[in-house]
Amino acid sequence: MIYQSFAELYDQLFDEDEYQNWFEYTQKQVDLSRRNEWLELACGAGRLVVQLAQHGQNVTGFDLSVEMLALAEQHTRDAGVSANLVQGNMLDLSELEQFDVVSCYADSFCYLPDEEQVLQSFTEVFKHLKADGQFIFDVITPYQTGEVYPGYMFNYQDDRQAFIWSSYGGEDKYHVEHDLTFFTKTADDDEIFRRAEETHFERTYELETYVKLLETAGFSSIQYFADYGKSEVGDKTTRWFFSCRR
Fold it and tell me: What is the pTM of this model?
């Protein structure tokens, strides 16, 4: 039950402009005038699932978190759209069919601990794409993990809950640690707060490493961009956006 409140808080605090930016990038990369069989990996609370379904896509939302999928179900229901929501690990998509498009945003691949698992996940995506199927995703860059995140802090508070997010540099410029602290008022006593903590670790790689891993998994026509596809990559790019094909 506590983690359910965390999932709701993540959903409340996430910048809605980010979802719109990701969707606009998606529109640039994929023809939404046709009805694609679509897999949204690490779909979280399903905000993009809803947008894709509203634009005629047949979407499967896939996430490790049951709590996030419960929110995704709520959001699809509230929006009056339908989607197939599946709980599972992106390292094993064997229970799924093949898709025209697979998307994965919010640097979800950066939560995998090493190159081997990134390659394993890319390979799973490749196996579950139809011929000439498209794979679009983003990751944070070493500039983000090594320069931008260390020392970052975000605080939030309302009448019933508070949230503290602090980021620290990892063992090298490719690693970052996020410490998240939550305070929520208990239902029984308005003066008592329950405290809980989570630590998240992210790891990224050089651009050339991602390209090599995609090629090893079998992908071709690999393109990469900055600024949601609006710019070419540079030394201070904080997030890379990829588009490639089976």
Answer: 0.91
Rounded Cα gap, residues 26 and 15, in angstroms: 18
Place of tokens 């498209």: 134
Instruction: List, in order of start, the domains of the chain with CATH numbers.
Output: 2-141+206-245 (3.40.50.150), 144-203 (2.20.25.110)
- Count CB atoms within 10 A of the CB of residue 106: 20
- DSSP alpha helix (H) spans, the chain: 2-13, 16-29, 47-54, 66-79, 115-127, 142-143, 207-217
d(CA 163, CA 176): 19
204-211: long-range contacts, CB 8 A cutoff, minimum separation 24: 204/107, 204/110, 204/139, 204/140, 204/141, 204/142, 204/144, 204/145, 204/174, 205/115, 205/118, 205/142, 205/174, 206/142, 207/141, 207/233, 207/240, 209/115, 210/118, 210/139, 210/240, 210/242
Task: Give the pLDDT of the chain (246 residues) as one tens digit per residue.
Answer: 344 556 777 777 666 778 899 999 999 999 999 999 999 999 999 999 999 999 999 999 999 999 999 999 999 999 999 999 999 999 999 999 999 999 999 999 999 999 999 999 999 999 999 999 999 999 999 999 999 999 999 998 888 788 899 999 988 999 999 998 888 877 666 677 888 888 999 999 999 999 999 999 999 999 999 999 999 999 999 999 999 999
